[in-house]
């Protein structure tokens, strides 16, 4: 508990220093333009704008992932600082244009962005290593069944700064108690059965272990449940897995604003991309395909063509693979930056899709995955989206099971503010190469342990 309190205080301190440096940066920017005089007509509105800047900074930094940064690599932290300070500067500049009393020269915003980016980047680099050092590298045990090895691989690939995977065990193993004693952090797969999972969690909590659970349908549905009672009997009322009428109206308003704005601003990008696609092989610029949206309704999605013509003529319906030979050189660049998805703003405008939601799936894949993954069928209780949880927190190569979990979490936790955050995060990942690409073959735990020379006890 003490460690948790220290971590929370550390995060608050990092935020407090961020805000102080941001204010200092814009003060320096002001004095570079106006000198040390505070008699200027601009000084009062400049000071009045500071609370707005602070609130915007807090919203942007959390949206771009600058809260709890130790799970990111340092490069992503600096990239997030760049996006946060840049977006802040742009937003405050736009606000000042519409509010005459707050209007002041654009030079303040330009230099304020540069200075704040430099100062906060230096501070965040120092804070990053301090937090990593404070956390330490903890020994990790993964408990589950067939999926335990896959979870361990993900931990090795993405969390090696924080955790040292020491053991991977089946939850029915006779040596499980010994593995638990030897490790401080425990990851639990959703494969563990109900009563056994409950008993296991109870034991781990009593031993003061740090426990992380891969959520199944039960855990996701219990989120944001309401406490009620029948006389003196406590009850938990589960939220229905759908959006209310009010939420759908607000969501549609957001869709209209972003789709119209996006089509206007990005039309030159589409024009250039269309010219390059046509010049490459003379084929059609756009590609349409039947997909499913809310209520399993079929619609035709529109994308910029990124593959060769008749790409599925011989293979039939198939997902794009990593370094897929069917993807054209132009298409590879479009996919890397997600620009091939821009025409889907037309689908959003028509009401077939939403800006944020589960990605639309082909009917054949939807039926296949629904037969294997119980939660998959719930993806169509809301409109299909241009981007979503699975896109900003997962990747193209994330498993269908994990994508379904992300989509269910999104539906359960929906809010208009969360949609805006996902849109901001989408802007961030557009230039992160590891988030794009096709489906890759995942190494199993035996293979990755051998390749990396890791000393892992594997009992699955």
TrEMBL record:
Bilayer topology: Multi-pass membrane protein
Pfam family, one: Bac_transf
Transmembrane segments: 12-35, 41-65, 77-95, 107-131, 256-275
InterPro entries, sorted: Bact_transf, EPS_sugar_tfrase
Domain annotation Bacterial sugar transferase: ranges: 251-431
UniProt keyword Transcription present: no
GO terms, molecular function: phosphotransferase activity, for other substituted phosphate groups
Keywords, sorted A to Z: Membrane, Transferase, Transmembrane, Transmembrane helix
Annotated localization: Membrane
NCBIfam families named in the record: EPS_sugtrans
Family: Belongs to the bacterial sugar transferase family.
Name of protein: Bacterial sugar transferase domain-containing protein
Record organism: Youngiibacter fragilis 232.1
């Amino acid at each position: 508990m003490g460690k948790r309190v220290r971590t929370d205080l550390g995060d608050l301190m990092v935020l407090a220093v961020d805000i102080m440096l941001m204010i200092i940066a814009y003060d320096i920017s002001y004095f570079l333009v106006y000198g040390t005089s505070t008699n200027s007509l601009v000084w009062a509105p400049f000071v009045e704008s500071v609370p707005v800047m602070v609130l915007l900074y807090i919203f942007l930094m959390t949206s771009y992932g600058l809260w709890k940064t130790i799970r990111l690599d340092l490069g992503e932290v600096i990239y997030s600082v760049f996006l946060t300070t840049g977006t802040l500067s742009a937003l405050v500049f736009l606000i000042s244009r519409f509010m005459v009393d707050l209007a002041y020269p654009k030079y303040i915003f330009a230099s304020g962005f540069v200075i704040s980016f430099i100062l906060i980047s230096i501070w965040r680099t120092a804070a990053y290593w301090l937090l990593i050092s404070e956390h330490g590298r903890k020994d990790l045990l993964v408990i589950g069944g067939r999926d335990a090895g896959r979870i361990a691989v993900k931990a090795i690939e993405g969390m090696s700064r924080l955790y040292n995977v020491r053991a991977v065990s089946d939850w029915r193993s006779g040596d499980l108690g010994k593995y638990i004693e030897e490790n401080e952090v425990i990851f639990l797969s959703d494969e563990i059965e109900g009563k056994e999972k409950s008993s296991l969690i109870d034991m781990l909590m009593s031993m003061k272990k740090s426990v992380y659970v891969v959520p199944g349908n039960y855990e996701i549905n219990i989120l944001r449940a309401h406490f009620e009672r029948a006389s003196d009997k406590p009850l938990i009322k589960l939220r229905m897995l759908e959006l209310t009428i009010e939420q759908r109206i607000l969501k549609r308003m957001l869709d209209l604003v972003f789709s119209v704005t996006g089509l206007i601003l990005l039309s030159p990008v589409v024009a250039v991309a269309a010219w390059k696609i046509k010049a490459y092989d003379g084929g059609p610029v756009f590609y349409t395909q039947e997909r499913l949206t809310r209520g399993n309704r079929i619609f035709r999605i529109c994308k910029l063509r990124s593959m060769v013509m008749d790409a599925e003529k011989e293979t039939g319906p198939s997902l794009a693979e990593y370094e897929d030979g069917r993807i054209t050189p132009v298409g590879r660049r479009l996919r890397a930056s997600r620009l091939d998805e821009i025409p889907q703003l037309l689908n959003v405008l028509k009401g077939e899709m939403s800006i944020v939601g589960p990605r639309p799936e082909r009917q054949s894949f939807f039926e296949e995955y629904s037969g294997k993954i119980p939660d998959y069928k719930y993806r169509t209780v809301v409109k299909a989206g241009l981007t979503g949880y699975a896109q900003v927190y997962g990747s193209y190569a994330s498993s269908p099971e994990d994508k379904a979990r992300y989509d269910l979490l999104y539906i359960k936790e929906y809010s208009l503010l969360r949609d805006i955050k996902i849109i901001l995060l989408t802007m961030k990942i557009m230039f992160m190469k590891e988030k794009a690409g096709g489906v890759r073959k995942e190494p199993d735990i035996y293979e990755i342990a051998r390749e990396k020379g890791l000393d892992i006890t594997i009992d699955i």
